[in-house]
Amino acid sequence: MPMSDENQSPIIIYEDADHAVDVRLDADQETVWLTQEQMTVIFDVQKAAVSKHLKNIYQEGELDREATVSILETVRVEGKRQVTRQIEHYNLDAIISVGYRVNSRRAVQFRQWATRILREHLTQGWTLNRQRFEENARELEAALALVRKAAQSPALDVGSGRGLVDIVSRYAQTFLLLQRYDEGLLAEPQAQLGGNLPSLTEARATLDGLKAELMARGEATELFARDRGDGLASLLGNLDQSVFGEPAYPSVEAKAAHLLYFVIKNHPFADGNKRSAAFLFVDFLHRNGRLLNDAGEPMINDVGLAALTLLVAESDPGNKETMVRLIMNMLAGANE
């Protein structure tokens, strides 16, 4: 006989005149469950009669016992104690079969009630799933629109184009193949809690080292990564802030995604914001042991990082949350 978890079967109440019975609803199987004792209340008969009818129903082959009986945990008060017992429950088919044999009027009343309850729950569930699906579809379209916009950018060269294709491929795998739509296509992934941000001094030293290398190759000027006011300090402070005693960005993925996004979009430097953002992003992953995945491969290669940076730069500020979740899912997916 199938075993069922009571947490998966919500309790509803059936009332008839001065009688009230707790009924387990199983909307997934489109049925309800009652014990023999509960059937005696609903049909106003002795338990012996219910037992006899059930025995005959199964012996005569009217119903299949395996398909209509489930063992559920029930908490009962026995004396002064609450005792949990495994008790047989019978589904709507068995309930109605018993009802027809003892009192058809009461069976019809209960069947009408049970059918209405099942219809309401199934309709509500379908409506909620449809609403969630439509919301996911809108967010999915918004994310793909970002990709289309980036693909039209004059800054997209052959290398970045390959990276953009890689991003779209990961996007499709993460959001369309690995997650059920009713869990949220762009839901935040399982993440690694924590994440140590560099201090302002450490971040400044990292950028100064990058600047020196680029200037030596003639790929940057004195304006590269030059602070505009206290933009970098404020940005790092915001990433490390707490809300009601809890980190505002509690995971490595969240901090990394927001670090990349904020440096690109907030323009804390006079020049080289995209390159600085990509470098700080990689440096942060390295500091937290996330630059390589479990297979020893880069979480994101140079071409993919260039394309991702361009994608963020081309995105509309209104799509910030979509962009951030995209980065987080890529980081989580690359480690699986």
UniProtKB/TrEMBL annotation:
Residues 181-329 form the Fido domain. PROSITE patterns: FIDO. It comes from the Bacteria. InterPro entries: Fido, Fido-like_dom_sf, Type_II_TA_Toxin, Virulence_RhuM-like. This is Fic/DOC family protein.
